[in-house]
Each structure stands twice: as structure tokens, then as C-alpha cells.
User: What shape does this take?
Amino acid sequence: MDLAGVIAIEVVYSVASLILISAGLAVIFGMMRVINLAHGEFMMIGGYATIVSANAGVNVWVAMLVVAPLTVGLVGLVVERLVIRVLYGRLVDTMLATWGLSLVLVGLATMIFGNTTAGISPPISGFALGGYQVNGYNLFVVVVTVVLLASMWAVLRLTRLGLLARGTMQRADMAAALGYDPDRVYMATFFAGSALTGLAGGVLAPLVGLVPTTGAGYVAEAFITVITGGASLIVGIVSSATILGVVSQAFTFATRPVVGEVALLVTALVLLRLLPQGITGRFFRRAT
Amino acid sequence: MSARPQLRGTFVALAAGAAILALAPLVAETYTLSVLVIYAILALSLGLIWGFGGILCFGQAAFYGLGAYTYAIAAINIGESTLPVLLGIAVPFAFAFVLGAVMFYGRLSDVYLGVVTLVVTLIFFRFMNATAGPAFAIGEARLGGFNGIPGFPILNVPGQPRWEIYDGAFYAVCAVALLLVYGLVRWLLASPFGRVAVAIRENEGRAELMGYDARLRKTVLFAVGGGIAGLAGVLYASWAEIVTPGLFSLAQSAEIIVWCIVGGLGTLAGPIIGAVVLGYAKFLLGQQSVIDNTLILGAILVLSVLLMPRGIAGVLGAAWGRAPRRARRPRRRAGAPRRLRSLDRA
Assistant: This one.
């Protein structure tokens, strides 16, 4: 019974972390159709922002929930103005430019922080569940993810800002005709997506040993989650993260973590082959 | 354009290439030159399928690594290099054929294609990193996990395992391989198959309405690209005398794409120039430690996308004043307008 509880927590946590790492990308890629291959590096920056400011004496919660999103949001803003803005509509060029950007960021991080592992200890201690030790911080990640999803849904569905963003993404010319400036809306949306990415990087920072190349591990999984999810932002990533997370954890428990990772990738391949438009291209088509 | 001037152009290019390859040892060491030539072959493989087939493959490194690993494993088990070389080309070819069939018959395109090839490369990378220990062995060859496979027999004169090919002779083999591959690719593109491949790149729907099976043709083109990348992998394995999972890494895939985009897409000379110039730059940069290498590579990529979208070959072609005819860039890169249209519908 205890084992079942532990496994359940692990599965829920892995689904939540998949959602967390892909939320920012879902906004940037799913809404704006900008392929940001520097997504993982944005998370890496969020992680470093958290660790550096926590080491400098900032409260660790403030560091991960405020400093990290703001830092990465500002980085995103600069990147959008300098690079992305020029390349809207040129999908492959954006992809290549952001790939170059990710290499630049990895290089910068290596020069600043060196090729060593940085980290902070999780601010929540573990607790015992029967005979097993459970990592309390994992539950915090789950809570953050749920709050994040709820607020994303609320902003997109209930506020004027969300309506404006969704409208501009669908028909930029119509939004412009109605007097809104698509350029500003794109800029704000990219900022929001970057900030979400930074939040993910900050929240996950205590769980990983951070090195400059950490981002490469995230970007593939985030893309897989968003693309197998399909067109609908929130329902898309939730459904694909659930499938992928459950499959990978099942294989991890049955065999070894590496098999779990490979199983996740293979599942994504099969899903893409069967549902080229993503899960929400076929099911839940009217959801957000 | 009739076939004859094109044939002459091919011979001129081959002769010029042979002359450059023969004179290059005067300015640089053959050890460095060999790997540059290998990079050129690798770049050519992506230049073919991306520049002329419109297939943006994020996982060309998968075929490169597969070729290298196949060669290493076969060479350990057989002890002589002739059959391993052939296997090192055939296995990536076959794998690319199967993967291509799955993708193209599934009508996956642009972004999805990129993600699938990326994922496949990652699977290889993760798997190879996890194969430490005696449990993972093919015949007598241990896969070796993160450390890779060292100490396999290098290239030898066919049938004579004792006559190993290295240094100057190895450079000659690589140079001949590059010329052969270049000739093969030129021939392929001049043939009806190549012309239809370009037509499919330009407008897949129209080509299909004319009765050409785009799925099969893209699959075959993709497989040829995989085979060429496999050959580059075989030569690399024999040059480095070790194969590691790093061959499958994202950085490796990125580098191939950077070569093509910096050199100039839609030409054959472009990727070769890109690979040689950037490969040599990387070699020079590796000797200093002031600025991180990755940073420079990344900056080059960003700047060339923003400022020089036609690549070195495009710039050179324009300088020659014959850009409209020679540097034919794909009018649209891998489906950007299509995505926009679907965005309009959404």
C-alpha cells in the first residue's frame, strides 16, 4: 500500500514536471508558432538566476518564484526585439536562429559559471510514507504546476488580455484593424512565455545539479510534449504529459530510468505517427 | 538548360576540387585535412536532402553515428575493414529508408519531421550512453556506454588486414571519397529522379498530381542522404580510432545544419565550403581558451541567419554576378507558408 502511494506520487510528479517544463514553450510555440530551440537554455538561466540570488541572500522562495521568471522574461524580451521579431513567419529561420542563440547562451554560461555543477538544497524536507522516504519538494512542484495551469486558463479564457492575445495569434491583421498593435501583443506574449519558462527553471533548480548544458535535456522533452499535445494549449500539454509521464514512469519502475526515457521518446514517435496533428488535433478540439 | 553544359560544369568542378584537394597538404597537415574532408562529406549529405529535397533533418548525426558504430563493431568482429565499410554505409541507408518510409508515408512534414528526427537521434544518444558493462555487446565488441568503443582495426587495403591506411594515404582515400560522393550527387540531381525531387521540394501537391509518388521519392532521397552520412561516419571512426555517443549528440546535428546554412543552401559547393571553413575555424578556436567555442559557433549561426540568409555560396555567386542562375535557393524553406496558412484557418 505504501509502495503504491510512493509510485502514485512519483507518477504525478513526473507528469507535473513535464507540464511545467513545456508550459512556456506551449505559449511561445503553441500560440505564436515560434520554435524556440533556446527553450532549455531559458530554463537554465532561470535555474542560475535562482541559485545566484539565493546564494546572495535573497529568500529562496522569492528567488525561484519572482527573480527567475523576471530575469528570463527580460532575456526573452531582448531576444524577441533583437532576433525573433525579424523572423516572424519564417519558421525554419527562427528555429536556426534560436538554435544559435542556445549555443551562445550555453557558451556564455560556461564562461561565467564554468563547467561545474551548481545547486541549492530543496527548501522542503522529505517525509516518511510507511517504510519509504518521500521527497516533499516534489509535492510542491505538483502544487505549482496546478496553480500555474489554473492561472493560465483563467488569463486566456477570462481576461481581456487573454482574449486579445488569442485573437492576435489567430488573425493579426484583424487585431490591427481593430486598433491593437500586433507587434506589442507578440512582444508581451513572448515575455509571458519566457517568464513561464524561467519559473519552471527556477522551481526545478533545487532538484537538478545545474550545469551550463542542462538545457539540452529539457528542450527535447518540452517539444515532444507540446507537439504531441497539439493545437489546444492547456488540454494539449496536460493530455500529452499524462500519457508520456505515465508511460515513462511505468517503464522506469519496471526496468531502469534509461528505458523509461527511451519509452517516452518511442511513445511520442508512435503518437505523432498516428496523430500527426497532435492529440488535440483529433480529440477535445474545442478546448483551450 | 541542356544536359551538356551541366556535364561540363560537373567535370570542371571535379577537376577544380581535385586540384584543391591535391594542393591542400602544402598549407596544412593531412591529419587535420582528413577530418575537414570528412565533415565536407557529412555536410553534403544534409545539403542534398535539405537543399534539394526540402527535408530538414535535425538528426543527420544519427546516421553519421550509426555508420561509425556499425564500422567499429563490425571491424572488431571481422578484423578486416572491407566488409565493415560497406556495412557502415548500408546500415544507415537501410535505417534512413525505414525511418523515411514511416515519416513520409505518414505525411509528416516540416516541424513534425524535425521533431521526429530529433527524437530518434536522442534515443540513440541516451541508449548508447547507457550501454556500459558487459551485458551490452555485439559479438566481441562491447558498446562501452559513455566511453564508447576504442581500439578497433582502422581502414586497411582491401583483403590485406596488415596494410593499414593512415596519414597521407588516408587523406587520399577521404579526398577520393569526397570527389566520388560529389560526382554521385551531381549525377543524381541531373537525373530524372533528382529533377522530380526538386519539383517535389517546390510544390509537392503539383508533383503528385502529375503522377509522381512523392512519398517514395522522398524516402529514397532521405535514404541516400543517410548512406552518405554513414560513409562520413565510417571515415571518421577510422580517423579518430574511437567512437563515442557524442557522435549522436544534438551539438553534432546542430553543427551539420550550421555548415549548410552558413555555406549556402540549395547549392552543393555551399555545404562543403561551410563545413571546411567552420571546421577549420573550430580547430583554430580550439587552440585558444579566451572565448568559449560554442558561443562563437552559435553567434555565427544567428548572424548568418539574420544577415546572410543565402550563405557564403550565395554571396560569392552574387559577387560573380550570376546568382540568379547558379545559387538557386529553395523559394520557400521547408513549408513556412503552409504553417501560416494553417494558422489562418485555426
